[in-house]
């Protein structure tokens, strides 16, 4: 029976075979990989990944699709977790010594940003991540300082990952077609991120980008002084989008010193 895509789950199923093979080629699954797919849907990517893997895990919220996956695949090869990816404990997946998780997925647009922040907490457990997201979101993730797309998402993720926009996927590759272009992003955790308290960095970055048209001195007023910006190597007259990730980290460390002292 044909599964009808559900709007509340943000379901758009990838059907273009050429693009599917391009994605699998980018992921390059190898035997022994501990692969987990978020939102396998109708298993278009799952089936191709399993051709190269001994087994894999999938996290699916839609119970109808969970039942379909359990019926379609050998449970010894496909471990189906019926769960919300925003709440699922990825650390519960068994990983042999010396290996890390490889995470993939065609992510619903409505949860992409919160899921990125959720997964960032697991970065030390992860080898790499390959996701299909709304193109605009990927552009924000990989944006360079000085561009209009550079913002909170850019800083928080670039602190934890090396990221690359692999290629763009048009709406015609999906059923039903979304209204926007998508893109594949590759995310490789930084081995040793700059030392920083994540909550303080998020507090600083959220405050800095709350009023993008203002200079950063005005944006962080009440949280940090002009002297703090200068101590972090930041021009107080700079716009927030012109400040590199490294300087935001330095600013968060200045804030940590204030709070500790």
TrEMBL record:
<protein>
    <recommendedName>
        <fullName>Ribosomal RNA small subunit methyltransferase A</fullName>
        <ecNumber>2.1.1.182</ecNumber>
    </recommendedName>
</protein>
<feature type="binding site">
    <location>
        <position position="60"/>
    </location>
    <ligand>
        <name>S-adenosyl-L-methionine</name>
    </ligand>
</feature>
<dbReference type="InterPro" id="IPR011530">
    <property type="entry name" value="rRNA_adenine_dimethylase"/>
</dbReference>
<comment type="function">
    <text>Specifically dimethylates two adjacent adenosines (A1518 and A1519) in the loop of a conserved hairpin near the 3'-end of 16S rRNA in the 30S particle. May play a critical role in biogenesis of 30S subunits.</text>
</comment>
<keyword id="KW-0489">Methyltransferase</keyword>
<dbReference type="GO" id="GO:0032259">
    <property type="term" value="P:methylation"/>
</dbReference>
<dbReference type="InterPro" id="IPR001737">
    <property type="entry name" value="KsgA/Erm"/>
</dbReference>
<dbReference type="InterPro" id="IPR023165">
    <property type="entry name" value="rRNA_Ade_diMease-like_C"/>
</dbReference>
<keyword id="KW-0949">S-adenosyl-L-methionine</keyword>
<feature type="binding site">
    <location>
        <position position="39"/>
    </location>
    <ligand>
        <name>S-adenosyl-L-methionine</name>
    </ligand>
</feature>
<dbReference type="InterPro" id="IPR020596">
    <property type="entry name" value="rRNA_Ade_Mease_Trfase_CS"/>
</dbReference>
<keyword id="KW-0963">Cytoplasm</keyword>
<comment type="similarity">
    <text>Belongs to the class I-like SAM-binding methyltransferase superfamily. rRNA adenine N(6)-methyltransferase family. RsmA subfamily.</text>
</comment>
<dbReference type="GO" id="GO:0008168">
    <property type="term" value="F:methyltransferase activity"/>
</dbReference>
<feature type="binding site">
    <location>
        <position position="106"/>
    </location>
    <ligand>
        <name>S-adenosyl-L-methionine</name>
    </ligand>
</feature>
<feature type="binding site">
    <location>
        <position position="14"/>
    </location>
    <ligand>
        <name>S-adenosyl-L-methionine</name>
    </ligand>
</feature>
<dbReference type="Pfam" id="PF00398">
    <property type="entry name" value="RrnaAD"/>
</dbReference>
<feature type="domain" description="Ribosomal RNA adenine methylase transferase N-terminal">
    <location>
        <begin position="19"/>
        <end position="191"/>
    </location>
</feature>
<feature type="binding site">
    <location>
        <position position="12"/>
    </location>
    <ligand>
        <name>S-adenosyl-L-methionine</name>
    </ligand>
</feature>
<dbReference type="InterPro" id="IPR029063">
    <property type="entry name" value="SAM-dependent_MTases_sf"/>
</dbReference>
<feature type="binding site">
    <location>
        <position position="84"/>
    </location>
    <ligand>
        <name>S-adenosyl-L-methionine</name>
    </ligand>
</feature>
<keyword id="KW-0808">Transferase</keyword>
<keyword id="KW-0698">rRNA processing</keyword>
<keyword id="KW-0694">RNA-binding</keyword>
<dbReference type="InterPro" id="IPR020598">
    <property type="entry name" value="rRNA_Ade_methylase_Trfase_N"/>
</dbReference>
């Amino acid at each position: 029976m044909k599964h009808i895509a559900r709007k509340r789950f943000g379901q758009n199923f990838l059907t273009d075979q050429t693009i599917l093979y391009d994605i699998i080629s980018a992921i390059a699954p190898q035997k022994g990989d501990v692969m987990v797919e978020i939102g396998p849907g109708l298993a278009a990517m799952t089936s191709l990944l399993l051709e190269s893997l001994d087994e894999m895990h999938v996290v699916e919220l839609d119970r109808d699709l969970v039942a379909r996956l359990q019926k379609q695949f050998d449970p010894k090869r496909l471990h189906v977790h019926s769960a919300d990816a925003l709440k699922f404990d990825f650390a519960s997946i068994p990983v042999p010594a010396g290996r890390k998780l490889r995470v993939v997925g065609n992510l619903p647009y409505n949860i992409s940003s919160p899921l990125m922040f959720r997964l960032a907490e697991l970065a030390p457990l992860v080898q790499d991540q390959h996701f299909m997201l709304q193109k605009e979101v990927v552009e924000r993730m990989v944006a360079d300082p000085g561009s209009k797309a550079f913002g909170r998402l850019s800083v928080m993720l670039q602190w934890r990952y090396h990221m690359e926009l692999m290629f763009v996927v048009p709406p015609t590759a999906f059923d039903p077609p979304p209204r926007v272009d998508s893109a594949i992003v590759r995310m490789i955790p930084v081995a040793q991120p700059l030392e920083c308290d994540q909550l303080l960095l998020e507090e600083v970055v959220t405050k800095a980008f709350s009023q993008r048209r203002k200079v950063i001195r005005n944006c962080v007023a009440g949280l940090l002084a002009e002297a703090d910006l200068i101590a972090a190597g930041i021009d107080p007259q700079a716009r927030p989008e012109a400040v590199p990730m490294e300087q935001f980290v330095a600013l968060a460390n200045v804030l940590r010193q204030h709070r500790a002292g």
